[in-house]
Protein: FCRLB protein
Organism: Pygoscelis papua
Amino acid sequence: AGVPRHPTGTQPSQLTSDPPWTPVFLAEKVMLTCRGSGVPGLTEWYLDEQPWQHTRSDYIHVSKNHAGNSSYQCRSPGARLSPPITLSFSNDWLVLQVPVRALVEGDELLLRCRG
């Protein structure tokens, strides 16, 4: 069980989110897009390191109706598994959002407040 560790291609898939912020409000839709080698086929999606869905398209919409964190990964045809993206879902009135993408020391950190 869990995410398979064997590679199926040379380059990792690239997983992005739109909007590229976390946390998001409950029931707010987030579009995840998986980019890979461009080989046709099904895109594999993983939720909290478990196989979740297969789609013909390279994107999927996610939302939650309960607060909490979820980790998403994808594998595009002909590419390896993507690094994970963790989305937090909040039922607060006000959230301080940070970018979903990983930051390294020295990166500028943009914060966003939403209500």
